[in-house]
Design goal:
Blueprint: H1 6-14, H2 17-20, E1 23-30, E2 33-40, E3 45-51, E4 61-66, H3 71-87, H4 94-130, E5 132-139, H5 145-158, E6 162-167, E7 171-178, H6 179-191, E8 193-196, E9 202-204, E10 209-215, E11 227-231, H7 235-244, H8 248-259
Parallel strand pairs: 6-11
Antiparallel strand pairs: 1-2, 2-3, 3-4, 5-7, 5-10, 6-7, 8-9
Length: 260
């Protein structure tokens, strides 16, 4: 029979009021000692101590199981508890190990949630890459029209973007496609010599401004085909262009952006 004092172990657990409400425990005699089963959260997390006959002179063996933690995480917690038990003096230690266990569970849960947050962020980024976005860019000038438009058209094909270059009192570029591709288009505009300055020297579009960058609404989803240039002479003509593209709401947003 086991030489471990079962009532003594039970009373040791019950003396610690900070644990009483957080767990349920059971002490069961075993052929080679005593089993102490402790459950948290209605049984979602379980901690089992196998107390050998010479306990507490010999530390207990420990097993950990949880519905919310992986096997690897449970193994990590178990190894930490075994190390903690080996470092404690040969005195009743179950309640101390339970406290350590609670702390380790909190840390592993936070770590798990952190991993879930990273995974969720990645999923959102992937979803964003698959969504179609619409962007409106404001260009500073277009002196060499054929050269400038030729580059923009080539980039749109390489990046699988559709769009319009609207030439008038303001030079606007409307783009539709994946957001990373739109960002790459904008990067090239700022870093590649796309036009010439007033002296005829090649220059970059450093004054380009992104007026709007939003997920495409259902009304203007896939409303652009190809990549073309369109001239306009007045605000009413520009408004007509956006009405034709089913982008009236976008036109009003552009007016607000231009006034800022």
């Amino acid at each position: 029979m086991s030489s471990v004092n079962l009532p003594a172990v039970s009373s040791s657990l019950c003396l610690h009021g900070d644990l009483r409400d957080a767990l349920t425990s059971a002490c069961l005699p075993a052929d080679d000692g005593l089993l102490v089963q402790i459950s948290f959260g209605g049984g979602d997390v379980s901690l089992r101590f196998h107390l050998p006959p010479r306990y507490p002179s010999c530390p207990p063996d420990i097993s950990v199981s949880s519905a919310g933690l992986s096997r690897t995480q449970c193994h990590v917690i178990k190894q930490k508890l075994l190390g903690r038990a080996a470092a404690l003096p040969p005195e009743p230690m179950v309640h101390l190990l339970v406290q350590s266990f609670q702390q380790e569970c909190v840390e592993e849960t936070v770590h798990l949630r952190g991993g879930e947050a990273v995974l969720k962020q990645r999923e959102e980024e992937q979803q964003e890459e698959q969504e179609e976005w619409t962007a409106v860019l404001l260009l500073d000038h277009m002196r060499s029209r054929s050269r400038y438009f030729g580059l923009l058209e080539r980039w749109s094909q390489q990046l699988q973007l559709t769009g319009r270059v609207l030439l008038g009192p303001s030079i606007l570029v409307v783009l539709q496609g994946a957001r990373p591709d739109i960002k790459e288009f904008c990067r090239r505009l700022r870093t590649v010599k796309v036009d010439v300055d007033s002296s005829g020297r090649k220059c970059k579009e450093r004054m380009m401004k992104v007026l709007i960058e939003n997920p495409s609404s259902s009304s203007c989803h896939h409303s652009l085909q190809g990549f073309m240039v369109k001239d306009y002479q007045s605000s009413s003509a520009l408004s007509a262009v956006f009405q034709e593209l089913h982008m009236t709401e976008l036109y009003h947003q552009i007016l607000l952006s231009l006034r800022d």
